[in-house]
Amino acid sequence: MLIPLFCVMLNYVTVLLGASVDNNSKFVPVFSWNYINFSWPSEQTMVEFGYVPGEDVIAGIKIYKNVIYLALPRIKRSSRVTLASIPIDANKENPLLSPYPNWEMNSGSTCDAIQNVLSMEIDKDGIMWVLDARRVDNNTDCPPKIILLDLNGEGKIVDSFQVPDELCPHRGGCFLNDIVVDGDYAYVSDTTSSDPGIFVYNRKLKTSWKARDKSMFGDPDSVNFTAQGVQNQHLSHVNGIALCCGKEERTFFYMPQTSLHIFSISNSVLKNRSIATGSNLHNFITDKGTKQGQSGGMICDTEDNIYYGILPLNAVGKWNVKMPLETAVIVEQNDEIIKWPDSFSIYDNYLFLITNSISKFSKKAINLSEINFRIIKLQSNSKSYVHC
To answer: How many Cβ atoms from other residues are within 10 Å of residue 251's Cβ?
Structure first.
């Protein structure tokens, strides 16, 4: 009678939360790490880089042609590699990462190198849009950039754009967080504490602007929540973003981390600089309602499903945007493998997710004898929004 009793209790908790659970879904582990290490070409290189076990964290994931690309923000003082890759068929336990595109680009020795990557996106042509724009740790004097790498050309740089100081202060805590790609445009969540918003980049015209609205600020009433046994007490602004399909217009979704709300706006509005930066922007924004808890990242597939992490519940939610947000379901709640669910990728009909034992922004030391990082996957039978 133990299993039926568990199901009853789970359904009871779910009713309290105001959401249903999809009992047919199940995440399975793909990779796990106690700590991150790399395929060093020599011991001398490891010494030169000043590698310290346990100082590197995984924050972003994207997959292309059976290669998994990972973002490793330089949060701790000894973090060294910030963009890396592994084959999708690598060893499942503690696989070594390879710096991408090479060691030199990860050295951080000059401003031509990659400095601090939190997230990236890969478009349908195999161009990786790298968001090298986390500047809140004071570990580089180099300006934030969006760098485009050709994955079909050994990671050759095909474009680079320096983020204007007036839109995201280089020495004032610039924090470009997540990125989605829409043709020649990229939309980026700007979590900068002093000036949050949606950063818009037009690759063709080599220009940018920022959409600002009060809905992009964190909600003080949603600041206090517990995840991984740690009480959050900090206000965090717009974080998770998603772009869904559409015939003529596409809908862009965003949410602050310290908020229960998801908001939407048409991509045509973001593309229109005068409207996006105008005083009437709020008239074009829709509050879609509230979800089950605070979230970091999210992603939309070709079937108009948005997947998002639910940090206090160690869970993943799923919402079809054609329906009210109140119809969203909990795909799975799992205290063992779904920890700080944040960064997603969709590949080969699977939803991939990075989970960490602690917040990716925490500077707390990890236990090197325990599993601290995982990549897990769920069968989704859909593709990423970039294939719309």
So the answer is: 18
**ω before 101 within 30° of 0 (cis)?**
yes
- Alpha-carbon radius of gyration of the chain: 20
Q: Which amino acid is at 341?
A: P
User: In this structure, what token pair is assigned to residue 143?
Assistant: 């300006």
> Could you tell me if 330 and 14 are in contact, meaning their C-beta atoms sit under 8 angstroms apart?
yes
Which alpha helices (H) appear in the chain, and where do they start and end? Answer: 2-17, 43-49, 267-271, 273-276
- Of 107, 186, 182, which is closest to residue 145 (Cα–Cα)? 186
Cβ atoms of 369 and 323 closer than 8 Å: no
CA distance 377 to 30: 7
User: How open is the CA angle 53-56-62, to the nearest 5 degrees?
Assistant: 135
CB 373 within 8 A of CB 37: no
Strand duo 20-21 + 329-333: pairing: parallel
pTM of the complete model beyond 0.90: yes
- Tokens 């709020």 correspond to what residue? 282
| DSSP annotation of 257 | S
**What burial class does residue 117 get, using C-beta atoms within 10 Å of its C-beta: 0-12 exposed, 13-18 middle, 19+ buried?**
buried
Three-state SS for 151? helix
Residues ≥6 apart with Cβ < 8 Å to 66? 87, 88, 89
Tens of pLDDT, residue by residue over 55-93, are 999 999 999 999 999 999 998 878 889 999 999 999 999
pLDDT band at 228 (very low <50, low <70, confident <90, very high): confident
- Report the C-alpha gap between 373 and 82 in whole angstroms: 16
Task: Calculate the alpha carbon distances from 143 to 72, 130, 307 in Å.
Answer: 18, 14, 32
Cα(341)–Cα(310) distance, rounded to whole angstroms?
A: 7
Query: Distance of CA 153 to CAs 97, 101, 179, 340, 351, Å?
Result: 20, 10, 22, 34, 26
How many whole angstroms separate alpha carbon 244 and alpha carbon 146?
22
Token look-up 């325990």 returns 370
